[in-house]
Amino acid sequence: MTDLTPIRRFREEEKRRRYRRGGFFLKTGVLVLFLVVPFVFPSFKTVDLSMKIALFAVLVASFDILLGYTGILSFGHGMFFGVGAYCVAFLVGKYGSPSYMNLAFGVVIAAAVASALALLISFLSLRVKAIFFAMITLAIAELAIILAIKLSGFTGGEDGISVSMPGIFAPSFRLGKIWGLEITGKVVSYYFILLSCAGLFLLMLRFTHSPLGRVLQAIRDNAQRAEALGYKTFRFQAISITFGCIMASMVGGLYTIWVGYVNPESCLGVLTIMLDVLLMVIIGGMGTLYGGIVGAAFL
Q1: Strand, coil or helix: 292
Q2: Coil, strand or helix at 156
Q3: DSSP labels for 258-291?
Q4: Around Cβ 29, how many Cβ atoms within 10 Å?
Q5: CB atoms closer than 10 angstroms to residue 100
Q6: 53: nearest Cα among 288, 258, 295
Q7: What is the pLDDT of residues 191-246, one digit of tens each?
């Protein structure tokens, strides 16, 4: 039987080192900064800016799983952001009632649609590599924009869909005052979305630091060597794309909760979203999820 005591000792030492590193306190400070923004800077403009930084930081991290950790360049990642936004808008706005059940159901449907679409794109497009894959995803994303505009009876066309948030998420909601801050629907939405973004970010960190994440990095560095070692690179790349796209769709659903409005240009636009996401990845650095926070804040 294998003696696990040295392994446990090594893991405990790694945990102690992690807390001693300055990066841990920097990350904690950033989280605290986001938490106190509504109290220190209560103006809507500042709170809105802070919220969009958090949303785009998670979106950039989901894209970095493809580009930075797997070496896959996709120009259609913003499409999945739009898929999540529209799924929530359909169930809470145009085709459903503003209820918590529909809100949760919209996020689940968004993840399901994104996973099915990502798997379909993977099986159709991963046979080609590098820029050719990027061009195929760009064409699919442009097709999604055209469909969203042309099917105006279903999607609202260029006018988009306005969403009325349920219960405590409604802008007219007033709970009272805490430490001098009036708790409105927007403040509740802010903390709900912020905690959801933190949860998604931690899930992506766990994904990239898992053995699966190590395999993805090996495929990024040398796909032929990983294939020779027995790893099915196609399967692992499809998993990476699917997971990243599901995360992007959930961010899109959270974006709808915050903005309360979706249209093709703001949620599916390749140029308006993907260019920003690419710049954020470059500014923050590829292969590091925390770089998405830096890139989003800077841009």
Answers
A1: helix
A2: coil
A3: HH-EE-HHHHT-IIIIIHHHHHHHHHH-TT-TTH
A4: 10
A5: 13
A6: 295
A7: 999 999 999 999 999 999 898 999 999 988 888 888 888 888 888 999 999 999 99
Least Cα distance to 244 among 15, 87, 58, 100 occurs for 58
pLDDT tens across 241-293, in order?
A: 999 999 999 999 999 999 988 888 777 666 678 888 888 998 888 888 888 88
List the beta bridge partners of residue 174.
Answer: 184
The answer to whether the CB of 60 falls within 8 A of the CB of 295 is: yes
Residue 275 sits at φ, ψ, to 5 deg, of -65, -45
Secondary structure element (H or E) that encloses residue 57, with its range: helix 44-67
Distances (CA, A) of 151 to 61, 77, 105, 158, 294: 31, 21, 23, 10, 37
CA gap 274, 79 in Å, rounded: 9
Residues 6+ apart with CB under 8 A from 176: 182, 183
Instruction: Classify each residue of 147-158 as buried b or exposed e, where b means 16 or more C-beta atoms within 10 Å of its C-beta.
Output: ebbeeeeebbee
CB-CB neighbours of 114 under 10 Å: 27
Q: CB of 284 within 8 A of CB of 299? A: no
Q: Which amino acid is at 147?
A: L
- Tell me the β-bridge partners of 176: 183
